[in-house]
Amino acid sequence: xxxxxxxxxxxxxxxxxxxxxxxxxxxxxxxxxxxxxxxxxxxxxxxxxxxxxxxxxxxxxxxxxxxxxxxxxxxxxxxxxxxxxxxxxxxxxxxxxxxxxxxxxxxxxxxxxxxxxxxxxxxxxxxxxxxxxxxxxxxxxxxxxxxxxxxxxxxxxxxxxxxxxxxxxxxxxxxxxxxxxxxxxxxxxxxxxxxxxxxxxxxxxxxxxxxxxxxxxxxxxxxxxxxxxxxxxxxxxxxxxxxxxxxxxxxxxxxxxxxxxxxxxxxxxxxxxxxxxxxxxxxxxxxxxxxxxxxxxxxxxxxxxxxxxxxxxxxxxxxxxxxxxxxxxxxxxxxxxxxxxxxxxxxxxxxxxxxxxxxxxxxxxxxxxxxxxxxxxxxxxxxxxxxxxxxxxxxxxxxxx
Length: 401
Fold this sequence. Notes:
- 30% of the residues lie in helices and 18% in strands.
- Helix 2 (65-78) runs parallel beside helix 7 and helix 2 packs across helix 8 (199-211).
- It has a domain at 74-195: DD-peptidase/beta-lactamase superfamily (Beta-lactamase), CATH 3.40.710.
- By secondary structure, it is α+β, with helices and mostly antiparallel strands.
- It has 13 helices and 17 strands.
């Protein structure tokens, strides 16, 4: 990678986002061929206190939890305990009679029998007929909001969430559409049931400990509290308002349930270990988490008919662009770089989080990128697109060269 281009990248982030006050702090790691070539850290951990952002800052990664949960489920698939074509009701009998909403409003809708059952692969790829309350499009979304379904620090436990969803019809026939949803939380519940351990313990024993991810978990430990970043929300005038105060954050206490869809905190270096494991075909150093074939399957487009998200989406919001993007087993996958309108490679895997975090793994260029900050919403600025241009613009030769 060209040193002058990397300096340009750093200057862009500092001038456009840190010094301008658009972001409180940011951290970027870039690795190529398994070696970290860039490690930048700028701004503040907490604006009110003026604390400089440390290299080991702890961040809320929100939906970047999803690929981790999917790797946990893939571990169970490799052990023969779970299959992509399993009906979900095999593992959640409470859902054996789920119907599909055909008309009506929340609480008075009419539902019909689904034309086919929801399968485990539907949970991986968001084609299960589930939703998020914040999608705010249908009566099913409204029912999720009314019952506070999917809130890690809310009132419902995992079993109560499953029971509540048993009373709400699906928003569409499984496999017929793509909708960003609570599906990965449900996959996390299944990992707990099939894996015989709470999700936090399963992830710690099977993923975090082997990869050396000591700062990743569902709760901010007391020894991490001084490194826990404040999160902010962008106001209409562009200023920042505190969203979650580190000293009183709900992340300091155990959650009501372990949200496989968005509950983890992590560091930039911890998550880079996870990304490097994927780039390494399921292994990092002496630790093997998945087989190379499983990682290749994870990064393949699993959407029906090989279509992209744009062709199937009913989602009002997600952490990915739609055109030229397929969806694999827990990650968005680039199928057509031209249609994305961005610098990227076919087969690139990526996902982001609600606080503007993002990671991607590009096998063609032997490239891994992890970006951490704490600004909601993630669509506040086009920083992810800009990062791609700056990172790829720093390459001096192709990955196979």
